[in-house]
Specification:
This protein is of the alpha+beta class. The chain is built from eleven helices and five strands, in the order H-H-H-H-H-H-H-H-E-E-E-E-H-H-E-H. Helix content is 47%, strand content 10%. The protein is globular and about 55 Å long. Pfam families: MDMPI_N.
């Protein structure tokens, strides 16, 4: 009997890529230079970063070609710093690429990237662990879901900057936020609570969902259902959630947009969750 993939995203990459190409083709010269919520990046910079994701997936993951040797990585912060430098180097070089050539390069790599992600066995060991979820080793289904969140997030940053919606849908947003929630147990790892404590996280509207964080003898675990009393609950709207959990907003920026019931001290830890390498 085939095992069920916990988060199914492999089939969504072509859908997301088609949406991206429609979006990039629609941009005016002014929109290419619009500021995004990623404070250092304009729209064209984000498009360049998405292109880098395609090229790295095909080169490193598919072909196992590691053209750049990382420095000594001894901590999570070391890893984040190195990745940030890689991203900055690429975006700086991509300043030389015109929007039309940027689109051409996306067209040359997007379909191949989608086909590669579709070909991966979801239950084999992933080439990279999903560190923001506290994993030292990940299976491909989680790694591919993380790749999906990258593609969704950066496309949404562009859409947000130019006010062109299109991927804030149940089909495309829910797998994104469902993957992000895997960082919740890691976020709460040092929070002390009695066994049986339950925290509810609600991303509202029809495109969101409800997740439960449960404290048991082994620590905190994520669940979609619960049999215990809910001690604390927090409700966040989808637009705030994707910006908050990708670190474009911080807790102090969003207090007016959230609702808390029960133990506030427990609930607000959710706002510290960061589901990207940042």
């Amino acid at each position: 009997m085939d095992k069920e993939v916990p988060i199914q995203t492999q089939h969504l990459f072509p859908v997301l890529d088609n949406k991206l190409m429609e979006l990039l083709h629609s941009l005016t010269p002014e929109e290419w230079q619009a500021q995004t919520v990623a404070k250092l990046w304009k729209v064209k910079d984000v498009a360049a970063h998405l292109l880098d994701g395609n090229i790295r997936a095909l080169s490193i993951q598919q072909e196992k070609y590691f053209g750049e040797i990382p420095p000594a990585i001894t901590s999570y912060n070391d890893l984040v710093s190195w990745l940030n430098q890689l991203n900055a180097d690429w975006v700086k070089a991509a300043k030389r690429i015109s929007p039309s050539v940027m689109i051409l390069l996306h067209e040359a790599t997007g379909k191949q990237t989608c086909e590669y992600f579709a070909s991966v066995d979801p239950f084999e060991k992933a080439i990279f662990a999903v560190s923001w979820a506290g994993e030292d080793e990940s299976l491909n289904w989680m790694h591919i879901a993380r790749e999906y969140t990258e593609k969704w997030l950066h496309q949404q940053q562009i859409r947000d900057a130019v006010n062109k919606q299109g991927i804030m849908t149940k089909e495309l947003f829910y797998p994104f936020i469902d993957t992000f929630m895997y960082a919740l147990p890691y976020t709460y790892k040092n929070v002390v609570a009695e066994e049986g404590t339950v925290i509810q996280v609600n991303i509202n509207t029809e495109i969101g969902g409800i997740w439960y964080l449960i404290k048991d003898a082994a620590g905190w675990r994520l669940s979609k259902s619960v049999n215990h009393e809910i001690i604390a609950a927090i409700t966040i709207d989808p637009d705030t959630a994707w910006k908050l959990f990708s670190k474009s907003l911080r807790a102090e920026d969003v207090m007016k947009n959230i609702a808390i019931a029960g133990d506030e001290k427990l609930a607000v830890v959710t706002l510290e969750m960061i589901s990207v390498m940042a």
